[in-house]
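Checklist before submission:
- one chain only
- standard amino acids only
- sequence pasted in full

Submission:
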Amino acid sequence: MNLNVSQAKAHLGRYVSEAARGKRFILCARNRPVAELRGLATTSDTPVPLKLGVLKGRFTVPDDFNQPLREWERSFYGESET
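Returned file contents:
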């Protein structure tokens, strides 16, 4: 089904729901096809469980991770270093 961009913007939620159920849409700008809206093959109703700890041992968090970024704050707020 062809849709103009203005139609798609006005009813995007409905078209996304339909695409998730298998319907395909061609988005048109000035009646010229420019994009396709379709569901992904991996979409399912069951959530994918999170796998915690998959990056364990691959990186370390620096000790000063939660420290304020004083230099950045000074430049952001336009304060001079004194």
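Reviewer check: Residues 2-37 form one domain.
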